[in-house]
Fold each of these.
Amino acid sequence: MELFHVKKDIPFMRYARSTIFVSIFFIIASIALLATKGLNLGVDFTGGTMMEMGYPAAADVPAIRNHLASNGYADAQVQNFGSSTDVLVRLPVKAGATSAQLSEKVLAVLQQQQPKVELRRVEFVGPQVGNELFEDGALALVVVSIGIVLYLALRFEWRFALGAIFATAHDVFIVLGVWSLFQWDFSLTVLAAVLAILGYSVNDTVVVFDRIRENFKKTRMTDVAAIMDNAKTATLSRTIITSGTTQIMVLAMLLLGGEVLYGFALALTIGIVIGTYSSVLVASPIVMWLGVSREDFIKPPKEESGAVV
């Protein structure tokens, strides 16, 4: 399926040197931010107090969130839990206040807005549990990365595999760097988005690389940049359709999904843009500079044995 057909190849590789330098700069900047500022870990990882509230009617979650923020609890996470009348409030650890004291204060604040609200359950998630979640999440990220590296190593010639690995790492580092720069809340849902970005980026790069490899096998051209430009132009319609439709769905979650899905959708929005950019303008230049050529895909002719008289 094609949305449009481009007759003349677009010279993507003409800008390869600039795009690679820009990408390397952003990767280094992201690593520096992660090393100095780190990530602003959410309650999922740091621990805190979790309160389940019951309302007599459907709860207005944004209004509850704004009311808590205006009373000194701007870091509270508020979401529906099970039904429209059940609300879950999560607060980070407060110095000098126990979980019981904190829950009583928050309940008093919420009763100013709705006197009939009930406190049904209070749980304290300790820092130890948060550390375990962070370690498990980091382990999941490492395992997925190793699986992707093995897949690419088996699927492609080593130059293509290195290019795809670099492009995928590029996407993850930049997303994490943006989170570190703005100190946005890094929660389990954001981590799930990072894992999704890994898969999306690899899929996009594999499609482009498959066409490049096919071009190397069937063309007589020796200009590597021209071969890659032809492959990218041929897959451009597919790339736009895939990225565009995915981005429309993610933007719907970003704009209409509320606070609970905001971090997840924002990470995916950035990741889709960066992933599309890297699959077209980052992965292929790496492969070209590693010295790929048409000869790497031409099988040497088999020597025929002499006829037996």
Note: Residues 12-40+129-295 form a domain with the Multidrug efflux transporter AcrB transmembrane fold fold (CATH 1.20.1640.10).
Amino acid sequence: MLPGWTKQMWWKYLSIVLLVYVLIGGLTVPLGPGLVSINPIAFTPGAENNFTIEAVNTHFQTGKNVQVFLKSAGKYLCVENAKATSETSLRFMLPMAQLANADKVDNTFDVIVNDDADGTIALRDALVMNGLVPDSLQANECVVAVANNLHTGFAFPYREILYESIRNTFYHVPMWFSMLLVLIVSLVYSIKYLSSNNKLYDIIAAESVNVSLLCGALGIVTGMMWANYTWGSPWPNDPKLNGAAVGVLIYLAYIILRGAIQDEVKRARISAVYNIFAIVIYVLFIFIIPRITDSLHPGNGGNPAFSKYDLDSHLRLFFYPAVIGWVLLFMWLVSIRVRIRFLEEIKLDNE
């Protein structure tokens, strides 16, 4: 008899509903406001400097209480003469009697803009101060006071480097969640086979690995596309990417091992033992090594975790359903493959 979870249908339909919801929402929800550039990017202390800020999805003209701040070394400078020239453009002049942390050469400043409609948006390390500050100039610091710190519309976060590719969060990341969970199913049934010698458990373990390799392949392809867009190369020398490749190769070796052993019982037992050790190595290369080495991926190599600065409440409304939907879809594929194999085994037994 097949396990009950391979026969249940409601969760399979749920996966379709969730993925349709993610697909539609993920493509139609716009990005939130963000700063694109500032020109010029350098200034000279002691001289008047005029700047133009360019942004996207902002409301500088129709919004209220538009404010501009510069930030360096934890100190703020308030710009009092900022003027909106369009909904997405601001101009301001900095007399440069206003300088914070003025005792170093080539200070970098974050540019921060706030208004009631767009909340607070920033461009990190956007301005560079050239040269030393004359002794006659004093820092004119201020205490930041804003009426609204959050964007009032429904949008995905605008993030430098990521931009529109942040939508890949709904596809790339769930592939690896799905692969891990399907492999856990394979591990459980490998252990159950070793304790019972039930042929069905070996079938479920093997088919789970087959589907997990599909997850891994899709995860690598979507990851390469994302890496090429954000890091300039489809395969930078990153331990997370290399670990993902090793993890897929480990389970490709599992498939090859099964094909190389003719005896049915021996194949099942050796495969089950291999599967137990394989997932340990998989977790090592995917989760542990990237965390203790330098890695471009968020949450690894000392980088802050993705959820701390990118996964806002709006993104979560689609990210969590995406994870659940993809996991259920791949489990559905496992159940289909198991039923096909089960019918094939029944046919062989009847011949």
Note: Confidence is low (pLDDT under 50) at residues 100-106.
Amino acid sequence: MSFSDTRLRVFYSVAKHLSFTRAAEELYLTQPAVTFQIRQLEEHFNTRLFDRHHNRISLTEAGMMVFSYADRILELYRETEKAINEMTGVTRGVIKLGATTTLGEYLLPRILSGYHDGFPGVQVRLTVHNTRMVIRKLEDATIDIGMVEGPVTNKNIVVSPCMEDELVLIMAPGHPLSKLDEVPVQRLKEYPFVSREEGSGTRAVITDQLSKFGVNYDQLDMILEMGSTESIKAAVEGGVGFSIVSLIALRKEVSLNSLEIRRLKEGSIRRKLNFVYQKQKFRSKAVEEFLAYAQGECIKIKEKPIV
């Protein structure tokens, strides 16, 4: 009697994350369903595959052996699917995409707007996190491709450029800084500032650039710390303070004139927006073609600046 592909995939996900909860999230299953599949597999082999220690699990010796074979078997499945799809000329499958908040909310919808027309057999599953979490999910293979801002230090991750982005000052109409054509960086310390959260790629870029201009991030009068650009824009529109956000997030506000945009006198704040993926991990035809399509869309978007 053989065990099913489903049980193998569930086992592999639990073993990779050492977490029933994270496996359930990755596979879009309930946690009881994941537990049931593991129990069935352990009954099939007539041995425990995991040791349970209160809120933690670890692989038994048998579990480590099954994990080793499962990794090879699932890799062969992926290679087989890619080979057949290339032979038949059909692109299908699921792409698990992770993006930072700004890119997931503002840039990727523009990139993906026409994707389904050209690739109707491909389903894209997008999750949005801060930069730190996107890289973590890429490292443990929870996602196929990530899209992040700024540098990546992991040498096992390939960084493929999309475009350059500019970060600008935003403030409500009538704010004292809006009376200036260009804002001296030292003036930023005089007014309440609305910040992104720790771990945000946007915050890291701003911190680095302000330091080069002579202002430490902790010298700003940080009145609010928020987890998304949308919440920051709403706070700034409400007069809470000024902020620094990506220009690609301001299309609506530019058209409605609901926010003032200014740049620093010392120079612009720019960052690179990149696709990232594991160097060694097998990539399906769907993933490779998505990457090529997305990079082409980046070029088109780059040629249409907002302001």
Note: The chain has a mean pLDDT of 88.
